[in-house]
Design goal:
alpha/beta, Rossmann fold, Tyrosyl-Transfer RNA Synthetase, Structural Genomics Hypothetical 15.5 Kd Protein In mrcA-pckA Intergenic Region, Chain A, 3 domains, 5-stranded mixed sheet, about 50% helix, about 15% strand
């Protein structure tokens, strides 16, 4: 399958400036880039879409320039925002840049294992492009190529200016000039001919192509391709400002959290996510979808999606661990508990909370209070009387029951209140 056909089948093309780019990059051996401002110390699921698009280019032998926005991050992109972004100081930006570079290196290493290919990625920082540039250099090397008239037509600028209740600082107004200069510099100094990015970035991106052609000549090769924004079920972009971030840094969310996020994907979203967020061959995805539709209650599509993404971020062992925890909390715990390793038990305890079994045991009423499943002994009695308390899926009916070491399975016991509130009792 050629590059354009695959990108279209995976719904990863929104707009592009010239059809020629697909033939050029289908042959391989070219460089392309996408920029990421270090506004946090981790990328998130919204960024994953551009990364997976980049992987489809890399699979064909192209080199991905991952551009960290050390300079643009100082300013903040006004696209999609109703007010100025909070400014980060130099130390914060440096920390974020280092953290993002580290996590993407690990992410790409995992993808190399999954694909069996040596995917080519280089890291650059646009701060290095402008750190020696003074104000006069900026005016003559950047500002003179783009008119204010052109800038005012960009959607990110128009929305802020046309709304009397909003304002736009000169700092943010100049953001597209810096982003445009990124493309000019990369094209002129490194032979980069393509920029990819989200569809909300198109105005900033084509500013770069305009600079290139005005400075280097109208026949200079430069292209832009935008990607449709991925929205969640409520219609929001994935991102930290929307409060629905799934981070790509393994330290920010657990494998189980990421796994469960995708297990909760609606059936209608499964095909779209499988195509965009994984590298599973398209015929195999169609087979998964067909099988999923025959028995949607088994959630096969969600399982394939969740396992694949957890493996990309955390690697295979974490994917297996997350699947086990999910089966314990939503399936048959008695089948899984006896086989769990100490690391898996620790991961489960981190998700649901745990209490170490005191020497000599503990009464059930006291246990419910200590694990915060009941505020008092009286409420604990009511829960037991209503049939809401379970140990290893067996209903507790005796309010005098004592939990002792001999009752544990694999040094653990799972306490459940109702359908979804779990605690782990351990003796490790």
């Amino acid at each position: 399958m050629d590059l354009k056909t695959e990108l279209q089948a995976r719904n990863l093309i929104y707009q592009f400036t010239d059809e020629k780019l697909f033939d050029l990059y289908n042959q391989g051996g070219q460089k392309f880039y996408c920029g990421y401002d270090p506004t946090a110390d981790s990328l998130h699921l919204g960024h994953l879409l551009t990364i997976m698009t980049a992987v489809n280019f890399m699979k064909r032998g192209n080199t991905f320039i991952m551009l960290i926005g050390g300079a643009t991050g100082f300013i903040g992109d006004p696209s999609g925002k109703n007010s100025d972004r909070a400014f980060l100081n130099e130390a914060e930006l440096k920390h974020n840049q280092e953290a993002i570079s580290k996590q993407i290196q690990q992410f790409m290493a995992n993808l190399n294992k999954i694909t069996g290919k040596e995917l080519k990625v280089e890291f650059m920082n646009n701060y290095d492009f402008v750190k020696e540039m003074n104000l006069f250099d900026f005016f003559t090397n950047v500002g003179k190529y783009i008119t204010v008239n052109t800038m005012l037509t960009k959607e990110s600028i128009k929305k802020r200016i046309e709304n009397p209740e909003l304002s736009l600082s000169f700092t943010e107004f100049s953001y597209m000039l810096l982003q445009g200069y990124d493309f000019l510099h990369l094209n002129e100094k490194h032979g980069v001919k393509l920029q990819i990015g989200g569809s909300d970035q198109r105005g900033n991106m084509v500013t770069g192509t305009e600079m290139i052609r005005k400075k280097l000549g109208g026949d200079q090769e430069c292209y832009v391709m935008t990607i449709p924004l991925m929205l969640d079920a409520s219609g929001k972009k994935f991102g930290k400002s929307e409060g629905n971030a799934v981070w790509l840094d393994p330290q920010k969310n657990s494998p189980y959290f990421v796994y469960q996020f995708f297990m909760n994907t609606t059936d209608s979203e499964v095909p779209r996510y499988l195509k965009a967020f994984t590298l599973i061959d398209l015929p195999e995805i169609e087979a998964i979808i067909t099988q999923h539709q025959q028995a949607p209650e088994k959630r096969l599509g969600q399982q394939k999606l969740a396992s694949y993404i957890v493996e990309m971020i955390f690697w295979h062992d974490a994917s297996v661990q997350a699947e086990k925890i999910s089966k314990i909390l939503f399936g048959d715990p008695l089948e899984i508990l006896p086989t769990m390793t100490s690391d898996e038990i620790t991961a489960l305890a981190n998700e649901v909370g745990n209490i170490n079994l005191p020497e000599g045991g503990i009464r059930i009423l006291e246990l419910l209070v200590q694990t915060w499943l009941a505020p008092s002994n009286g409420e604990a009695k009511k829960l037991i009387a209503s049939g809401s308390i379970f140990f290893n899926e067996q209903k507790v009916e005796d309010i005098q029951k004592e939990i002792k070491k001999a009752d544990l399975i694999n040094n653990i016991w799972l306490l459940r209140k109702g359908k979804k509130s779990y605690r782990l009792i351990t003796n490790l």
